[in-house]
Amino acid sequence: MSKPPVKRAKRQPGKWLLGLDHLYKIKTDQLGFYKALEAEFGDAVCLQLGPYRNWLFFHPDPIEDLLTRQSNDFIRFQKLTDVVRQWNGDSLLLAEGEAWRVRRRKVLPAFQTKRLPRYGAAAVAHAEAFCASLSAQANGGAEVRIDTDAAMAQLTLDIATATLFGKEPVSNGAEVERAIQVLSDTAFRESTSPFTLPDWLPLKAKKDKLWAMGVMDTLVTGLVNNRLADIAEGGTADRGDLLSMLVEHHEGDAVAIRNDSMSLLIAGHETSGALQSWIFALLAQHPEELDQLEHEIESLLGGRSAVFEDIAQLKRTRAVIEEALRLYPPAYALFTRRAEANVSLAGVTIRKGDMVQIVPYTLHRSDRWFENAQQFKPARFLDAPTWPKYAYLPFGAGPRVCIGQNFGLMEACLVTATILQQWRPKHIHGPLHPEAKFSLRPKGGLPMTWEKRVRAV
Ligand code: HEM
After folding, report:
1. Could you tell me the pLDDT band of residue 236, with boundaries at 50, 70 and 90?
2. Which atom of ligand 1 is nearest to the CA of 335?
3. Could you report the per-residue pLDDT of 269-301, keeping only the tens digit for each?
4. Is 130 in the pocket of ligand 1 (CB under 6 A)?
5. Ligand 1 mean position to 413 CA, how many Å?
6. Which end of the chain has the smaller Cβ count within 10 Å, N or C?
7. Helix, strand or coil for residue 176?
8. Which residues pair with 432 in a beta bridge?
9. C-alpha distances in angstroms, 429 versus 320, 425, 433?
10. Mutate to test the pocket of ligand 1, among 271, 337, 392, 400 (most ligand atoms within 8 A of CB)
11. What's the chain's average pLDDT?
12. Top-tier CATH class for 1-88+332-393
């Protein structure tokens, strides 16, 4: 699609004092609010949000500048990073400037392509275990009804602990999953509130947060310390997991290893779980796409387990994943950035201290960049893109692009192919609404009926 030039940004001061009406809308209907802003203002708008001027860009040109050429002039909004730092500590996700560059160099080796097949094997093994658990729940029947969102959260947690720590599912998996949910809700609540109450207040939300931080710290610090102690006693250094690489490149620095392990576990797990839920939800709604996908998978695998090398052939599976990421990007908004200098962008001056927001969800659903943008059409990803590069940002872009992008795509491809070999997502019970919290999840879960596949012999 051709790209019209960017129109100059307008100001939208807000009806209530300090734009508190905007903040209210962000808390209650964030996605609807951004969509309405794009419809009214077009390419860019500047809102008053509490004490901050907050810019939103809906045109790929200024977004490209912001994420690439001028990325050094922006850091992540401190209120958000301060909240996440409470449990992540200083880590790749939160670091800035030279400290971030050093960290990124140290964490990157964990994601080298040559390491991916082993992570992929863990993903397939856990997806097969999920299929077996569906069979057990179906108890000889052909159908089973489960909350697919909860199940995908658990499955991707098992994959994350296996690939990060080389560990079988943790014994308190349900508790860990709940703790991650609590921290995710806390991050959203505390970062979008005008002020944060102290943790010592006897409130349920505070009690839950401290409990969740305790569960995650016990898990991650425990696994890291055990590994370090084992290596000190002569144990194998490289066990093919992400932790081995963090230990090697952080040169045994226990705090740095713990913090980066925590941020990889949380950042990687929640997004992957959400993506998997959206893939199956969309396939349940589009049986004709599901048929084509099953045909691709069956023709290639013929009943054997998928392996990393199959991914290149699973073109339609990959297209479904990319289309799911377009319609329901788990990272529906990128981290809010703060300008560190006056920056000229799209004909306006962003002043030092101003905030800037980029919302992939709004970009991905704009008819200006995607034909029939609201429709699920995986085939659009089978040919060369017809949209501008910076209109499709499920993993961000520029130097701070998602470090787990290839890992996440590989996992989604192998998990989808493995599950669809045995089970068919058949029917969603109730309406399907995206809820924008820390990531984009189906509101109220994803109650769904699965049907056992009968393989043609
Ligand atoms: C479907 C899966 C995933 C999606 C949609 C996703 C999305 C994103 C996005 C949009 C960003 C950039 C945020 C910004 O610029 O504001 C990001 C960064 C990041 N992601 Fe992912 N991610 C996924 C999987 C993973 C996995 C599997 C891992 C690790 C195992 C991971 C770890 C990270 C980290 C550490 C960063 C920060 C990188 C930096 O600042 O240098 N992600 N992710």
Report:
1. confident
2. 16
3. 889 999 999 999 999 999 999 999 999 999 999
4. no
5. 17
6. C
7. helix
8. none
9. 22, 12, 12
10. 271
11. 91
12. mainly alpha
Cβ(404) to ligand 1 under 6 A?
A: yes
378 Cβ inside 6 Å of ligand 1: no
Which of 373, 329, 337, 370 has the alpha carbon at shortest distance from 353? 337
Which among 260, 262, 276, 269 is positioned nearest to 157, based on CA atoms?
A: 269
Strand-pairing partners, residue 424, are 451
Angle at 261 between CA 258 and CA 262, to 5 degrees: 85
Ligand 1 contact via 425 beta carbon (within 6 Å) = no
272 lines ligand 1 (CB under 6 A): yes
Query: Would you say the CB of residue 387 lies under 6 angstroms from ligand 1?
Result: no
**SS3 label, residue 144:** strand
Whose tokens are 């959260």? That residue is 153
Spell 201-214 as b/e; 16+ CB within 10 A means b: eeeeeeebbeebbe
Q: Which residue shows structure tokens 């991905």?
A: 364
DSSP string of 325-350? HHHS-SS-SPPPEEESS-EEETTEEE
Q: Torsion angle, CA of 75/4/34/319, rounded to 10 degrees?
A: -90
* pLDDT single digits (tens) 180-211: 989 988 988 888 776 778 888 888 989 999 99
- Dist. CA 172–CA 232, nearest whole Å: 27
pLDDT tops 80 at residue 350: yes
